[in-house]
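Practice record 12: protein with coenzyme A.
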Amino acid sequence: MNLEKINHTKAAITAVGGYVPDTILSNQDLEKMVDTNDAWITSRTGIKERRILKDKATSFLAIKAAQDLISKNNIEPESIDMVIVATITPDMNVAATAAYVASSIGAFNAFAYDLSAACSGFLYGMSTSAAYIASGKYKKVLLIGADKMSSIVDYTDRDTCIIFGDGAGAVLFEPSINEFGWEDEYLRSNGEERMALRIKAGGSLYPTSKETVENKWHTLFQEGKTVFKYAVSEMANAAEKIKERNNLKGEEISYLVPHQANKRIIDATADKIGLKENQVLMNIAFYGNTTAATIPLLLNDNKSKFKKGDKLVFAAFGGGFTWGAAYLTWAF
Ligand code: COA
Protein backbone atom coordinates (compact mmCIF):
# COMPACT_ATOMS: atom_id res chain seq x y z
CA MET A 1 0.00 0.00 0.00
CA ASN A 2 1.31 3.44 -0.91
CA LEU A 3 0.79 5.39 2.28
CA GLU A 4 1.63 8.66 0.56
CA LYS A 5 -1.52 8.27 -1.53
CA ILE A 6 -3.81 8.01 1.47
CA ASN A 7 -5.47 11.33 2.04
CA HIS A 8 -6.74 11.95 5.54
CA THR A 9 -8.86 14.94 4.62
CA LYS A 10 -11.37 15.76 7.32
CA ALA A 11 -14.97 16.08 6.10
CA ALA A 12 -17.07 19.02 7.26
CA ILE A 13 -20.73 19.90 6.98
CA THR A 14 -20.71 23.21 5.11
CA ALA A 15 -24.39 23.78 4.29
CA VAL A 16 -27.81 22.66 5.53
CA GLY A 17 -31.37 22.72 4.12
CA GLY A 18 -34.77 21.31 4.94
CA TYR A 19 -38.40 20.98 3.93
CA VAL A 20 -41.65 19.82 5.53
CA PRO A 21 -45.03 19.83 3.78
CA ASP A 22 -47.70 22.31 4.90
CA THR A 23 -50.46 19.83 5.80
CA ILE A 24 -50.60 19.14 9.55
CA LEU A 25 -51.95 15.91 11.07
CA SER A 26 -52.53 16.71 14.75
CA ASN A 27 -53.21 14.39 17.68
CA GLN A 28 -56.78 15.72 17.61
CA ASP A 29 -57.08 14.65 13.95
CA LEU A 30 -55.86 11.17 14.90
CA GLU A 31 -58.46 10.97 17.69
CA LYS A 32 -61.07 10.95 14.91
CA MET A 33 -59.29 8.17 13.00
CA VAL A 34 -58.29 5.60 15.68
CA ASP A 35 -58.96 4.88 19.37
CA THR A 36 -56.37 7.24 20.84
CA ASN A 37 -56.12 10.63 22.54
CA ASP A 38 -53.84 13.64 22.71
CA ALA A 39 -52.87 13.05 26.37
CA TRP A 40 -51.73 9.44 25.69
CA ILE A 41 -49.74 10.34 22.57
CA THR A 42 -48.10 13.37 24.22
CA SER A 43 -47.12 11.55 27.41
CA ARG A 44 -45.92 8.32 25.71
CA THR A 45 -44.09 9.90 22.72
CA GLY A 46 -43.81 13.71 23.03
CA ILE A 47 -45.52 14.13 19.63
CA LYS A 48 -48.24 16.77 19.11
CA GLU A 49 -48.44 16.91 15.32
CA ARG A 50 -46.77 15.71 12.10
CA ARG A 51 -46.58 16.91 8.51
CA ILE A 52 -48.17 14.94 5.66
CA LEU A 53 -47.34 15.13 1.95
CA LYS A 54 -50.35 14.80 -0.31
CA ASP A 55 -50.31 13.42 -3.87
CA LYS A 56 -46.52 13.53 -4.32
CA ALA A 57 -43.59 11.19 -3.71
CA THR A 58 -40.46 11.21 -1.53
CA SER A 59 -38.39 12.75 -4.36
CA PHE A 60 -40.54 15.90 -4.04
CA LEU A 61 -39.48 16.27 -0.39
CA ALA A 62 -35.82 15.54 -1.20
CA ILE A 63 -35.72 18.02 -4.10
CA LYS A 64 -37.27 20.76 -1.95
CA ALA A 65 -34.72 20.20 0.85
CA ALA A 66 -31.82 20.15 -1.63
CA GLN A 67 -33.07 23.31 -3.37
CA ASP A 68 -33.35 25.04 0.00
CA LEU A 69 -29.70 24.16 0.72
CA ILE A 70 -28.53 25.17 -2.78
CA SER A 71 -30.33 28.52 -2.91
CA LYS A 72 -29.47 29.64 0.63
CA ASN A 73 -25.78 28.82 0.20
CA ASN A 74 -25.21 29.79 -3.44
CA ILE A 75 -24.08 26.29 -4.38
CA GLU A 76 -23.52 25.58 -8.08
CA PRO A 77 -25.47 22.29 -8.65
CA GLU A 78 -23.05 21.20 -11.37
CA SER A 79 -20.20 21.29 -8.82
CA ILE A 80 -21.81 18.48 -6.75
CA ASP A 81 -19.93 15.18 -7.18
CA MET A 82 -22.43 12.80 -5.64
CA VAL A 83 -25.94 12.70 -4.21
CA ILE A 84 -27.01 10.16 -1.60
CA VAL A 85 -30.66 9.88 -0.56
CA ALA A 86 -31.21 8.02 2.70
CA THR A 87 -34.77 6.71 2.58
CA ILE A 88 -36.99 3.70 3.20
CA THR A 89 -39.78 5.17 1.08
CA PRO A 90 -38.18 5.50 -2.36
CA ASP A 91 -40.41 6.69 -5.22
CA MET A 92 -40.17 3.18 -6.69
CA ASN A 93 -38.45 -0.03 -5.64
CA VAL A 94 -36.31 -0.03 -8.77
CA ALA A 95 -34.77 3.23 -10.07
CA ALA A 96 -32.88 5.06 -7.35
CA THR A 97 -34.75 8.09 -6.06
CA ALA A 98 -31.38 9.83 -5.67
CA ALA A 99 -30.75 9.68 -9.43
CA TYR A 100 -34.03 11.46 -10.13
CA VAL A 101 -33.33 14.01 -7.38
CA ALA A 102 -29.81 14.72 -8.74
CA SER A 103 -31.16 15.31 -12.27
CA SER A 104 -34.02 17.46 -10.98
CA ILE A 105 -31.73 19.82 -9.04
CA GLY A 106 -29.27 20.15 -11.93
CA ALA A 107 -26.47 18.08 -10.38
CA PHE A 108 -25.58 16.81 -13.86
CA ASN A 109 -21.99 15.89 -12.96
CA ALA A 110 -22.97 13.78 -9.96
CA PHE A 111 -23.57 10.07 -9.53
CA ALA A 112 -26.37 9.18 -7.16
CA TYR A 113 -27.81 6.32 -5.17
CA ASP A 114 -30.15 5.50 -2.29
CA LEU A 115 -29.09 4.27 1.12
CA SER A 116 -31.50 2.18 3.18
CA ALA A 117 -31.00 1.91 6.94
CA ALA A 118 -34.38 3.11 8.23
CA CYS A 119 -34.12 5.54 11.15
CA SER A 120 -30.30 5.23 11.12
CA GLY A 121 -30.18 6.05 7.41
CA PHE A 122 -28.94 9.61 7.83
CA LEU A 123 -26.36 8.65 10.46
CA TYR A 124 -24.98 5.89 8.21
CA GLY A 125 -25.15 8.35 5.29
CA MET A 126 -23.02 10.87 7.18
CA SER A 127 -20.42 8.15 7.74
CA THR A 128 -20.48 7.27 4.01
CA SER A 129 -20.28 10.91 2.93
CA ALA A 130 -17.45 11.70 5.34
CA ALA A 131 -15.51 8.64 4.12
CA TYR A 132 -15.84 9.68 0.46
CA ILE A 133 -14.51 13.14 1.32
CA ALA A 134 -11.72 11.67 3.46
CA SER A 135 -10.69 9.45 0.55
CA GLY A 136 -9.89 12.56 -1.45
CA LYS A 137 -11.94 11.27 -4.40
CA TYR A 138 -14.80 13.75 -4.21
CA LYS A 139 -15.13 17.34 -3.00
CA LYS A 140 -18.88 17.89 -2.70
CA VAL A 141 -21.21 15.18 -1.39
CA LEU A 142 -24.89 16.10 -1.01
CA LEU A 143 -26.58 13.89 1.58
CA ILE A 144 -30.37 14.02 1.82
CA GLY A 145 -32.58 12.22 4.35
CA ALA A 146 -36.14 12.03 3.01
CA ASP A 147 -39.14 9.92 3.90
CA LYS A 148 -42.82 9.98 3.05
CA MET A 149 -43.77 7.75 5.97
CA SER A 150 -47.48 8.40 5.33
CA SER A 151 -47.12 6.22 2.21
CA ILE A 152 -46.32 3.11 4.31
CA VAL A 153 -48.31 3.75 7.49
CA ASP A 154 -51.59 1.93 8.17
CA TYR A 155 -53.90 4.67 9.45
CA THR A 156 -56.11 2.08 11.17
CA ASP A 157 -53.19 0.85 13.36
CA ARG A 158 -52.93 3.08 16.43
CA ASP A 159 -49.60 1.52 17.45
CA THR A 160 -47.81 3.03 14.44
CA CYS A 161 -49.90 5.77 12.85
CA ILE A 162 -49.43 8.16 15.78
CA ILE A 163 -45.63 8.12 15.43
CA PHE A 164 -44.65 8.95 11.88
CA GLY A 165 -44.60 12.02 9.63
CA ASP A 166 -43.15 13.21 6.30
CA GLY A 167 -40.17 15.48 5.70
CA ALA A 168 -36.66 15.92 4.30
CA GLY A 169 -33.37 17.51 5.25
CA ALA A 170 -30.05 17.90 3.44
CA VAL A 171 -26.42 18.61 4.26
CA LEU A 172 -23.37 19.22 2.08
CA PHE A 173 -20.09 17.54 3.02
CA GLU A 174 -16.85 19.13 1.77
CA PRO A 175 -13.17 18.93 2.79
CA SER A 176 -12.73 20.96 5.96
CA ILE A 177 -10.79 24.20 5.60
CA ASN A 178 -10.18 24.40 9.37
CA GLU A 179 -9.61 21.76 12.04
CA PHE A 180 -13.34 21.03 12.46
CA GLY A 181 -15.53 18.32 10.96
CA TRP A 182 -16.28 14.58 11.25
CA GLU A 183 -14.41 13.28 14.30
CA ASP A 184 -15.63 9.79 15.19
CA GLU A 185 -18.38 7.24 14.69
CA TYR A 186 -19.65 4.03 16.29
CA LEU A 187 -22.11 2.14 14.06
CA ARG A 188 -23.71 -1.25 14.62
CA SER A 189 -26.53 -3.50 13.33
CA ASN A 190 -28.35 -6.70 14.32
CA GLY A 191 -30.36 -8.45 11.61
CA GLU A 192 -31.68 -11.11 13.95
CA GLU A 193 -34.28 -8.58 15.11
CA ARG A 194 -35.44 -7.54 11.65
CA MET A 195 -39.02 -8.78 12.11
CA ALA A 196 -39.59 -6.42 15.06
CA LEU A 197 -39.81 -3.41 12.72
CA ARG A 198 -40.57 -4.17 9.11
CA ILE A 199 -42.69 -4.13 6.00
CA LYS A 200 -43.05 -7.83 5.34
CA ALA A 201 -44.06 -7.94 1.68
CA GLY A 202 -43.17 -6.29 -1.60
CA GLY A 203 -39.56 -7.51 -1.56
CA SER A 204 -38.09 -10.85 -2.63
CA LEU A 205 -39.13 -12.61 0.60
CA TYR A 206 -42.85 -12.11 0.03
CA PRO A 207 -43.42 -10.73 -3.48
CA THR A 208 -46.68 -8.86 -3.88
CA SER A 209 -49.68 -11.17 -4.19
CA LYS A 210 -53.39 -11.11 -3.45
CA GLU A 211 -52.58 -12.73 -0.09
CA THR A 212 -49.95 -10.13 0.92
CA VAL A 213 -52.34 -7.30 0.09
CA GLU A 214 -55.26 -8.89 1.93
CA ASN A 215 -53.05 -9.49 5.00
CA LYS A 216 -51.86 -5.86 5.02
CA TRP A 217 -48.22 -6.91 4.73
CA HIS A 218 -47.34 -3.78 2.72
CA THR A 219 -47.54 -1.35 5.61
CA LEU A 220 -45.21 -0.80 8.53
CA PHE A 221 -45.45 -3.12 11.51
CA GLN A 222 -43.52 -2.77 14.75
CA GLU A 223 -43.36 -4.52 18.08
CA GLY A 224 -43.31 -1.20 19.90
CA LYS A 225 -42.06 -2.52 23.23
CA THR A 226 -39.17 -4.53 21.71
CA VAL A 227 -38.07 -1.58 19.60
CA PHE A 228 -38.37 0.78 22.54
CA LYS A 229 -36.26 -1.44 24.81
CA TYR A 230 -33.46 -1.86 22.26
CA ALA A 231 -33.56 1.79 21.21
CA VAL A 232 -33.22 3.05 24.78
CA SER A 233 -30.26 0.84 25.62
CA GLU A 234 -28.38 0.89 22.30
CA MET A 235 -28.73 4.60 21.50
CA ALA A 236 -27.55 5.44 25.01
CA ASN A 237 -24.68 2.92 24.88
CA ALA A 238 -23.49 4.18 21.51
CA ALA A 239 -23.56 7.81 22.66
CA GLU A 240 -21.70 6.85 25.83
CA LYS A 241 -19.04 5.02 23.81
CA ILE A 242 -18.48 8.09 21.62
CA LYS A 243 -18.31 10.33 24.67
CA GLU A 244 -15.79 8.11 26.46
CA ARG A 245 -13.40 7.43 23.64
CA ASN A 246 -13.24 11.11 22.68
CA ASN A 247 -12.71 12.14 26.31
CA LEU A 248 -15.74 14.40 26.20
CA LYS A 249 -17.18 15.64 29.48
CA GLY A 250 -20.97 16.14 29.60
CA GLU A 251 -20.64 19.89 29.86
CA GLU A 252 -18.29 20.02 26.86
CA ILE A 253 -20.92 18.61 24.49
CA SER A 254 -22.66 21.55 22.84
CA TYR A 255 -25.66 19.57 21.59
CA LEU A 256 -26.99 16.04 21.36
CA VAL A 257 -28.61 15.66 17.92
CA PRO A 258 -30.71 12.52 18.39
CA HIS A 259 -33.03 10.69 16.01
CA GLN A 260 -36.57 11.75 16.91
CA ALA A 261 -38.56 8.55 17.55
CA ASN A 262 -39.84 9.02 21.07
CA LYS A 263 -39.10 11.74 23.63
CA ARG A 264 -38.58 9.08 26.31
CA ILE A 265 -35.84 7.41 24.22
CA ILE A 266 -34.13 10.79 23.69
CA ASP A 267 -34.35 11.67 27.41
CA ALA A 268 -32.81 8.30 28.38
CA THR A 269 -29.90 8.86 25.96
CA ALA A 270 -29.33 12.40 27.25
CA ASP A 271 -29.40 11.17 30.87
CA LYS A 272 -26.88 8.43 30.18
CA ILE A 273 -24.29 10.90 28.88
CA GLY A 274 -25.05 13.47 31.55
CA LEU A 275 -26.63 16.26 29.51
CA LYS A 276 -28.96 19.02 30.62
CA GLU A 277 -32.20 19.79 28.77
CA ASN A 278 -30.72 22.82 26.97
CA GLN A 279 -28.05 20.58 25.39
CA VAL A 280 -30.59 18.31 23.71
CA LEU A 281 -32.12 19.25 20.35
CA MET A 282 -35.72 18.20 19.87
CA ASN A 283 -38.50 18.93 17.36
CA ILE A 284 -40.44 15.67 17.68
CA ALA A 285 -43.51 17.59 18.95
CA PHE A 286 -43.97 19.20 15.53
CA TYR A 287 -42.86 16.56 13.02
CA GLY A 288 -43.09 13.16 14.76
CA ASN A 289 -40.68 10.54 13.48
CA THR A 290 -39.70 11.40 9.89
CA THR A 291 -37.22 8.45 9.80
CA ALA A 292 -34.17 9.46 7.70
CA ALA A 293 -35.15 13.13 7.87
CA THR A 294 -35.14 13.67 11.64
CA ILE A 295 -31.44 14.49 12.08
CA PRO A 296 -31.02 16.86 9.11
CA LEU A 297 -34.30 18.61 10.00
CA LEU A 298 -32.94 19.14 13.53
CA LEU A 299 -29.74 20.60 12.07
CA ASN A 300 -31.75 22.85 9.76
CA ASP A 301 -34.09 24.08 12.49
CA ASN A 302 -31.21 24.83 14.88
CA LYS A 303 -28.37 25.92 12.56
CA SER A 304 -28.51 29.55 13.72
CA LYS A 305 -27.53 28.35 17.23
CA PHE A 306 -24.36 26.59 16.13
CA LYS A 307 -20.94 28.23 16.43
CA LYS A 308 -17.66 27.18 14.85
CA GLY A 309 -16.10 24.44 16.99
CA ASP A 310 -19.35 23.39 18.67
CA LYS A 311 -19.24 19.71 19.63
CA LEU A 312 -22.25 17.79 18.32
CA VAL A 313 -23.02 14.19 19.27
CA PHE A 314 -25.45 12.32 17.00
CA ALA A 315 -27.33 9.15 17.97
CA ALA A 316 -29.91 7.03 16.15
CA PHE A 317 -31.70 3.70 16.27
CA GLY A 318 -33.86 2.10 13.59
CA GLY A 319 -35.27 -0.92 11.82
CA GLY A 320 -32.91 -3.68 10.81
CA PHE A 321 -31.95 -3.22 13.64
CA THR A 322 -29.44 -0.44 12.88
CA TRP A 323 -27.97 2.05 15.34
CA GLY A 324 -25.01 4.14 16.35
CA ALA A 325 -23.60 7.48 17.40
CA ALA A 326 -21.15 9.99 15.96
CA TYR A 327 -19.17 13.06 16.94
CA LEU A 328 -18.76 16.13 14.74
CA THR A 329 -17.31 19.56 15.37
CA TRP A 330 -19.26 22.32 13.60
CA ALA A 331 -17.10 23.94 10.96
CA PHE A 332 -18.72 27.27 10.09
N1 COA B 1 -53.42 5.45 22.01
C1 COA B 1 -53.89 5.05 23.20
N2 COA B 1 -53.51 3.92 23.78
C2 COA B 1 -52.61 3.16 23.13
C3 COA B 1 -52.08 3.52 21.90
C4 COA B 1 -52.52 4.71 21.32
N3 COA B 1 -52.08 5.17 20.13
N4 COA B 1 -51.20 2.59 21.50
C5 COA B 1 -51.17 1.67 22.47
N5 COA B 1 -52.02 2.00 23.46
C6 COA B 1 -52.32 1.29 24.70
C7 COA B 1 -51.95 -0.18 24.60
O1 COA B 1 -53.01 -0.91 24.03
C8 COA B 1 -51.70 -0.52 26.04
O2 COA B 1 -52.93 -0.73 26.69
P1 COA B 1 -53.08 -1.92 27.77
O3 COA B 1 -52.11 -1.56 28.87
O4 COA B 1 -54.50 -1.82 28.15
O5 COA B 1 -52.71 -3.17 27.04
C9 COA B 1 -51.09 0.75 26.61
O6 COA B 1 -51.48 1.80 25.74
C10 COA B 1 -49.59 0.70 26.69
O7 COA B 1 -49.11 0.23 25.42
P2 COA B 1 -47.61 0.00 25.16
O8 COA B 1 -47.43 -0.60 23.80
O9 COA B 1 -47.00 -0.68 26.34
O10 COA B 1 -47.11 1.50 25.13
P3 COA B 1 -45.66 2.03 25.18
O11 COA B 1 -45.48 2.84 26.37
O12 COA B 1 -44.65 0.96 24.88
O13 COA B 1 -45.66 3.03 23.95
C11 COA B 1 -44.88 3.19 21.71
C12 COA B 1 -45.89 2.57 22.64
C13 COA B 1 -45.11 2.66 20.30
C14 COA B 1 -45.07 4.69 21.72
C15 COA B 1 -43.46 2.83 22.21
O14 COA B 1 -43.36 1.45 22.41
C16 COA B 1 -42.38 3.25 21.29
O15 COA B 1 -42.12 4.43 21.14
N6 COA B 1 -41.65 2.29 20.69
C17 COA B 1 -40.54 2.58 19.85
C18 COA B 1 -41.05 3.18 18.60
C19 COA B 1 -39.97 3.62 17.70
O16 COA B 1 -39.08 4.26 18.12
N7 COA B 1 -40.15 3.28 16.41
C20 COA B 1 -39.39 3.77 15.35
C21 COA B 1 -38.07 3.15 15.18
S1 COA B 1 -36.82 4.14 15.76
